[in-house]
Design brief:
CATH class: Alpha Beta
Shape: globular
CATH superfamily: Nucleoside diphosphate kinase-like domain
Distance between the termini: 22 Å
Order of helices and strands: EHHEHHEHHEH
Number of domains: 1
Structural class: alpha+beta
């Protein structure tokens, strides 16, 4: 196992529903350190860059519209195998397929509003952390 960083986000539905404290408590209870956190309204251009790999797919525009519809909480988590561990905590993308005990299994209702996001690989984590927290040493 290796200590690593990953990007995590509480999406607009999670913020609007008042789930920030609950999700953060679960992250901390798991033993991950939150080394960066910010509340922001994602601008359109940033959302399009964040979901750039999905450009041209039928769900791209609705995804961008949703993620820009309200404030999000962007975080950088640090810990042993944080990418894999955070993804396991989140559960399947579609809450209908997410196991009980996962964030999506317990809290999300539909695939389009599934409460949280997490990087799927080290390169993605690096890109998403840079996009949301910059390259200016904010996390050093």
């Amino acid at each position: 196992m290796a200590t690593e960083r990953t990007f995590a986000m509480i999406k607009p539905d999670g913020v609007q529903r008042g789930l920030v404290g609950h999700v953060v408590a679960r992250i901390e209870a798991k033993g991950y350190r939150i080394v960066g956190m910010r509340l922001l309204q994602i601008p359109l251009e940033m959302a399009e860059r964040h979901y750039g790999e999905h450009r041209g797919k039928p769900f791209f525009e609705p995804l961008v519209a949703f993620i820009t519809s309200g404030p999000v909480v962007a975080m950088v988590l640090e810990g042993e195998d944080a990418i894999k561990g955070w993804r396991a905590m989140m559960g399947a993308t579609d809450p209908a397929n997410a196991a009980a005990g996962t964030i999506r299994g317990d809290l999300a209702t539909v695939i389009d509003h599934n409460v949280v996001h997490g990087s799927d690989a080290p390169a993605t984590a690096e890109r998403e952390i840079a996009l949301f927290f910059g390259d200016g040493g904010l996390l050093d």
